[in-house]
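idk why but the lab printer keeps eating my pages so im just putting this in chat instead. protein + FE2/S2 (inorganic) cluster:
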Amino acid sequence: MSLRRLSPDQPASFAFKPEHGPRIKREVAKYPPGRQASAVIALLRLGQEQEGWVSKPMIEEIGRILSMPYIRVLEVATFYTMFNLEPVGEHLVQVCTTTPCWLRGSDDVVAACKKHIAPKPHTVSADGKFSWMEVECLGACVNAPMLQIGKDFYEDLDGPKTEALLEAFRRGETPKPGAGNGRHTSEPEGGALTLKDPKLYDGGYSRKTNGGGDEGATDAEAKRPTQGASDRDAPVQKPPGAAT
Ligand code: FES
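predcted complex ->
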């Protein structure tokens, strides 16, 4: 468990942008009257989307909107590591360093971040463009090592690829996210190696193995909805007093 405290540098005030008013109302309306505190995570997320991080005035404002004591909102904000408690750069770089990514070279990705952003995590780069942090598995282990920038994943990285990626962002470009070695999503490099026969998917094998006059079900036939089990198995309704 990491120690999570609010930043010593805090803004004087916070207000949600007026255009966020309808979304706040929508989030609060998802819960029954008196349970509006359940929208706290949604509002913290919205505040973070607006400012990049969660400040003390933001926590106070959310507590006011949801009629929650400040400490209750603070507990949520400091518990979940997805909430940034200090200012971040224009691009927040989250580097996965969990075992599969580490085995595949996340140390080189971290080294590139140290070189191109700042030697220490949670530090905004001199030009304000970036900050970086280590995170636990982001669920893209098949394409390890990887990192997340904004809402996008960049995968199959190494040191030089990470440096090129950061430099592209620094120039104002937005590189294409996803697999970084030319493969399609998480397919094997060079393309699929197994289950490549189209007959596996078009009913061809079914027709062949049924043989003779029985052609088996075509793909379209197999996908046609049938009578529901609840209709098939429902007992026949009888009038009251009828013989059983
Ligand atoms: S270990 Fe890095 S994405 Fe899962």
